[in-house]
Every structure is written in structure tokens, then in C-alpha cells.
Write a structure and sequence with these properties.
Blueprint: H1 10-20, H2 24-52, H3 56-68, H4 81-84, H5 105-126, H6 129-157, H7 164-179
Length: 181
């Protein structure tokens, strides 16, 4: 049976940390990033639940609508937390959903790209020779240009888009990759 980390004695905790292969600073950075993400997501959901008095049953329905794609937004390819909860758009003066705190797709796609970046970067750090070159080429020629295209095109196409959430996702992905040795 596995013990929880906190239940381990100090020497076992130290041994486990050494086996992970990350410095204490890197583990703290990853923990801080994860906590920051959870807090931001929690605040959005908490504010939605508070302001609209959603019950636990209603939250289940919201998740079902999101999972089934029944949470339309102004853009066909995106989903909206507000419409999933049965509410209208609180930012009716906007002409786009990209960068809105309630928009789901763009943040998810960016997060997935950054997770892939982190995974490929970790594999590249362990590789050598042709495999290292192949992984480096994928990062430089495919993945990073896709991320940069998202970050560059959104403000051009949608000037009122709130870019900070996307920048934070990219920054966390880069920091996570930097922590991998």
C-alpha cells in the first residue's frame, strides 16, 4: 500500500525527491503553477456558482453540456462556460470569444500544445544523436510555430481578446519544461 508523501519520514521524503530528479526549487515552481491554475479556475467557477446560485445538480448538467459540446459560443469551434450554465454572455459588447475568461476551446488547445511541448522537451533532453535532432526539429518547426501563431494571430484578428490567460498557459508550460532535466 502506498503511503501519502506527508506520512513518510523525512529521509524517505528526501529519497523520493531525489528519485524524481527535480530540485526543490523546481518542485516548488511546479506546485506553485498548479496551485495558481487551480485557484484561477476555482475563482471563475466559484463566482459563477455564487452569482447564479447553481446547485450541485446544476453543476453536473453544466459539465454534461460541456462534454457533449452543447455550450455554444459566438464562434462555432468554441464552447462557453456561461452558455453551459444556461446563462447568457456577460460580455455582449464583444465580437469574439477568444481570450474571454469563460471561453473553453482556445485555452484548452493552448494548454494541450504546451503539454506536448513539455513532453517532447523532456524526451529530447534524454535523447542523443538522430533522435535528439528529430525531436528538436519537431519542436522548432512544428510545435513552437503553432503556439506562436496562436499568440500572434489572436490580437490581430480579435483586438479586444484578453491575452493574459493564454500567456500564462504558455509561460507555465515553458517553466515546466525548464524544470525537467
Amino acid at each position: 500500500m502506498k503511503k501519502e508523501f506527508r506520512e513518510l519520514d523525512v529521509s524517505s521524503q528526501t529519497q523520493l525527491i531525489c528519485e524524481i530528479g527535480l530540485s526543490a526549487e523546481q518542485i516548488d515552481s511546479i506546485s506553485e503553477t498548479v496551485m495558481h491554475s487551480y485557484m484561477n479556475a476555482g475563482l471563475i467557477v466559484k463566482n459563477l456558482v455564487k452569482s447564479d446560485s447553481l446547485s450541485q445538480e446544476s453543476i453536473g448538467k453544466v459539465l454534461q453540456r460541456i462534454a457533449s459540446g452543447a455550450a455554444p459560443s459566438y464562434h462555432e469551434e468554441m464552447l462557453c462556460l456561461m452558455t453551459a450554465s444556461g446563462k447568457g454572455c456577460p460580455k455582449k459588447d464583444r465580437c469574439c470569444c477568444i481570450g474571454c475568461g469563460f471561453e473553453i476551446y482556445t485555452k484548452t488547445a493552448t494548454h494541450m500544445l504546451m503539454k506536448e511541448y513539455s513532453d517532447l522537451y523532456a524526451r529530447m533532453q534524454k535523447a542523443s544523436g538522430p533522435e535528439y535532432n528529430r525531436l528538436q526539429s519537431i519542436l522548432k518547426k512544428c510545435l513552437l510555430p503553432a503556439v506562436l501563431e496562436i499568440l500572434e494571430s489572436i490580437p490581430l484578428l480579435y483586438p479586444e481578446a484578453e491575452m493574459e490567460p493564454l500567456y500564462q498557459i504558455v509561460e507555465r508550460g515553458m517553466q515546466h519544461a525548464d524544470c525537467i532535466e
